[in-house]
Specification:
With about 80 residues, the protein is mainly alpha-helical. It has one domain. It is about 80% helix and about 0% strand.
Length: about 80
């Protein structure tokens, strides 16, 4: 039975995070498209829509930073493995 390494676990986790990132980015794009297609008008405000868009963008930014840090960690693990061999 193969042993799961920290590298393997992190790589698997990153793939899941990247999938969630893609889904969230698509949802964010749809929200932005909706806002653009429905600008403020008499009886229609968009401040709530924009507030939600900003909140979702902040969550997406946090996920991106997590992914980028994880990718850097995997790269460092790969470099360490290469120099140990």
């Amino acid at each position: 039975m193969a042993q799961v390494t920290a590298h393997d676990a992190l790589a698997y986790s990153l793939k899941r995070e990247q999938g969630q990132f893609a889904e969230e980015a698509e949802r964010l794009a749809k929200q932005a498209t909706y806002i653009a297609a429905n600008p403020p008008a008499d009886g229609r405000t968009v401040s709530g829509d924009i507030t939600r868009l900003i909140q979702e963008a902040a969550f997406l930014l946090r996920r991106a930073a997590t992914i980028e840090a994880g990718l850097e960690a995997v790269g460092l693990m790969n470099a360490q493995t290469t120099t140990e061999q």
